[in-house]
Amino acid sequence: MPGTDRLPVLLKLSRGREILLNFIGVTVESDRRYIHFPSNKHMFTPVPAGQQNNPKQIYELYNGGSVPVNYAIDLVPLELLKQENFDQAVFECLNPQGTILPGRTTATEWLFSPLEAKTYMVDVPIHIDRGDSALITLTGVGYDQRVMGDTMPISDQQADLTGVPAVQSVPVPGQLLFLSQERIVFGNVPMYSQARHLVFAINRSHDHVVSFEWHVTASADSQYLSISPASGLLEPGHSELCDVTFTASGASSFYDLDLVCEVTDETELAIYRKKLKEWQQEKNRQIYEFTITEKNLNENKDTTLFSVEERPPSGRLKSLDQNCRAESESDLAKYRTLPPIKQSSIDEDKLREREVSDLMKEYWPKPVQPTPFLVHLGVTARTHDITEFQMNFPEDEKKYFIDRTLSERLGEGKTEKTATSTTTQGVSTEVKCSESEGEVIAGVMSNVLRGLLDDNNFHEAVKKLADEPVPYFQQFGDKPHEVIIDGDMDAPSPEVGETAASRYEVDRQSSVESAKSVPWSRDGSIKIETQSAPASLGPSSHGGTPADTPIPAVDPVTPRSRTEVDTSYKEEKANQDREEIKRNPTFGVVTENLLENTLLNIISEAFNEEFNITTRPRLVALLPKPSTPQSDIK
Fold this sequence. Notes:
Elements: E1 3-12, E2 18-27, E3 35-36, E4 41-43, E5 47-48, E6 56-63, E7 69-73, H1 76-84, E8 91-93, E9 97-100, E10 105-112, E11 119-128, E12 134-143, H2 145-148, E13 177-179, E14 183-190, E15 194-203, E16 210-216, E17 225-228, E18 231-234, E19 239-247, E20 254-265, H3 266-288, H4 315-322, H5 346-361, E21 373-384, H6 386-392, H7 406-409, H8 414-424, H9 435-453, H10 456-467, H11 500-515, H12 562-583, H13 585-607, H14 629-633
Parallel strand pairs: 4-12, 5-12, 14-21
Antiparallel strand pairs: 1-2, 3-6, 6-10, 7-9, 7-11, 8-10, 11-12, 13-15, 15-19, 16-18, 16-20, 17-19, 20-21
Helix pairs in contact: 11-12
């Protein structure tokens, strides 16, 4: 019967306490649209006040009926709360409308952005299409992080708070496959990074072969979660290593995801297929095969197959033929009327059902396919902005590799690229704002400008800035030593802005060209002539420098051969290419994948007992080579 059933159960522990459990179940009609709400109150995770990137939180809705349900969240109370808080959206629903399939759960996404350190409450109606509406009270707590300090750390929702153990302790009847963990906690993860966890799928049966296949409960969860391998086959007593990868993308959010492992008993499935094939063959045989039961088929070959006996027409037909009425009703007396229609008794119905059941025993029913067993794997995580993660979790920063190209690969940078392209083409972009927002911005800017006009220190700083000379910023770089060769004193100096490699290429070419006319010594070095500059110079005829002007000392240049010049140039070029490769984000991604696959292969081989990872390294001593006659002769 439709309604709500309650069953109180008293759980007694031996030499322990007694716990009262209240089991509540709701039964609905087959065509009723029903969403189950465990409670009419929901509290979001506390969030620091004044943050720019607030995490995305979820509120789940479960469809307990057998038909799809369309829901709509009334946003009028949220708008009223927004007007009360200086036109700032405290609660914001990202998907206020949607459809929930039968027996499925959908997650409504919310943003809680507190302005002050206080508790916010709002009553939100949830309307159901052709169903009952519900009023849910949403509560959010904002706190001042400067005041709370370490007493209110930014963390994810730990699984320990639920009290549910991560490892299954009691097996379910009919369960063949077990997981090493039923709940994975990734913790705090920075944006644009990946976190990994290993889970073992174990077949504890001794005579049944099982196959497994992983599924996500929502299609949107596939961009955050991936598992490898997605399917597999396990022999009795064997196990499989599964790599669960969580990708932090999108906006900062709380994640409570669910992976479903569909386990099929291949042994029972093979028996079902065999029985189904035999049943299908028997069905075809009964359709097309028949048995002739007549015994005397060859005795009456000469006689006619059909003998028609002429009977006199009945009185009714006779009267119709002769167009006259029947003289008497004696001709109709030999016909009997049908018995009256009456309702059968209960005993007769039971007797008929018994006869039908006895008759059905003679028939071969169609085999039923075995139903797969479902094993759930829960995943929880919280993603943070990169700067927020570096500020709050500096010790965990080295545990993650931040992939800068992840947003482009996932297609998140398309909107940014489009906006940038329109700006570069010269199209004027305008930011739309409401009238109240414009008044706030105008008031703030007017106060700032008025404060600057009244500040005397600012006026003096502006005057001093006008008298300061234009600064010159020298470009930093490693300048190679200039090799001074005879006839090469008037070579042009490299321009400002050239790279070290280009300057070195020019010097190398000039030195090679001039080296053709310069005699080489026997050891392959160049004879370089250096002149010692005087400490001071007198006044020249052209009005040169004064006599007391010091001349900077010139570093002595060691002679370098042509081979050394080429070798140093190649080394510098190789170092420059190596640094460019290291700065390339693709190199970091490839290195991470290579390291991940290497470690995964080592763990897989150790798990499959291909080698013992804890064995001490051994030194294998080879036998000496046997002596041969030729070696003895030598």
